[in-house]
Amino acid sequence: MSEKILEIKELNIRVNDKIIVRDMSFDLLRGQIVGVIGASGVGKSTMLFAISGLLGEQYTVTGDIHFDDGQNILNMNRRNLQLICAKNTNIVFQDALNSLDPYETIGSQLREIINFKEIRSFKDEKNRDKLYNKMLEDSSNLNNAKNLDNGDSRISHSESFESANKDDYIEKRIYELLDLVGLENEASILKKYP
After folding, report:
1. Measuring CA to CA, which of 10, 82, 91, 180 is 20 to 30 A from 67?
2. d(CA 28, CA 33)
């Protein structure tokens, strides 16, 4: 049985007296893809913002949103919510021109995201080391699955978080993620503007 990484139970979202989302429930298993479809204005983005902890104060959210650690994010303070959501969620918006800064290169924006999501958001060394070791394991599994472990510049098990230069780590992670989604000519992509 696959590992459950997200559980939504009876999610309700209101703004003022208007119900935006009513009694939404679903589970997401590791490796599974869930498509959320519907007409414009029915609450798809609002639901995703609730899962990512990005809804404003004007929204009332009830129900349960649990990531794999079992905590209901709806009961968390803002700081813990930010840390959990930074670790567990990403949003790819429908229109990349509205999502990326047209005055910054794609590479500089990816560097900022990885620095925050994978390094800076984990302040204490113990959690940072755990995250780094998991990323090494994930990248090793990816390399083994795709036969990429051939001495290239991707992350290797011989590196440790303490000895790895943060900028080098971020660069390797960017190339690894671009490769994962099947993009070629990574260096030229990173220099482009959105």
Report:
1. 180
2. 8
